[in-house]
Amino acid sequence: MRGALRTLGAIAVALATAIALTTPADAHGGEEGMVVEPAATSAGAVVSVRGDLPTTSSIVLVLESSAGRTVTLARVEDPPQGHFDTQVAVPATVTPGAWHLQARVGDTVLAERELLVSEAAQPPAGDDRAEPVVVPTGPASAALSAIRPDAGSLSAGHADPSGRSEPTPWWPYAVLVLALVGAVAWMRRRDA
Q1: Percent of the chain at pLDDT exceeding 90
Q2: What is the pLDDT of residue 185?
Q3: What residues form the membrane-spanning segments (predicted)?
């Protein structure tokens, strides 16, 4: 009986420690603050910005130069649990140099990352951007998925383009473990 209670106590302490050591950032893939990809780009290009910030208020993404010039890039409306993932265009009017991309709520800067901006790249002479892109949805999609496993889900629109998946919730497993431990303790107590 005492052995079962010790085991139950050890499991409870381990579970409580795991819960206490789990941070909110772990719930979103381990990111802290804000990530800007790529960290070096050209004026007129698009960058990906994602983050986990301690707010559920609207977040304003701002570029700030070392001279204090600011350019508002985007507004993220009411991000769930402070988590956001968006793409923003760096204006073609931004001068080359080191800029700071800031996530602000009001006058408060919640996160900041350096963004190196170079001159706008000139498009090549034979630019083919006007040509349509065809995504196969039939049998060709199955053949493509053998080469690229996420191709089938891309045509259906179910894939996460960032490559990240949602975290697995831990609490159902904790409830199951506690139920099993309780059942074992109850059976041992009943047999004693």
Answers
A1: 17
A2: 85
A3: 170-187
- What's the CA gap between 157 and 154, in Å, rounded? 5
pLDDT at 104 over 70: yes
> Of 19-23, 30-34, 175-179, 187-191, where does mean pLDDT reach its minimum?
19-23
Q: Which CATH architecture best describes the domain 29-121?
A: Sandwich (2.60)
**Model-level pTM greater than 0.85?**
no
| Residue 28, both tokens | 């979103």
Predicted confidence at residue 81, as pLDDT, reads 82
Q: Where are the domains of the chain?
A: 1-22+170-192, 29-121, 136-162
How many angstroms from the chain centroid is the CA of residue 11?
Answer: 31
CB atoms near residue 38 (< 10 Å): 11
> Between vectors from CA 57 to CA 48 and to CA 76, what angle results, nearest 5°?
25
Confirm if 82 and 52 have CB atoms less than 8 A apart.
Answer: yes
CA–CA gap between residue 82 and residue 7 (Å, rounded): 38
Model pLDDT, residue 48: 92
Give the 3-state secondary structure of residue 6: helix
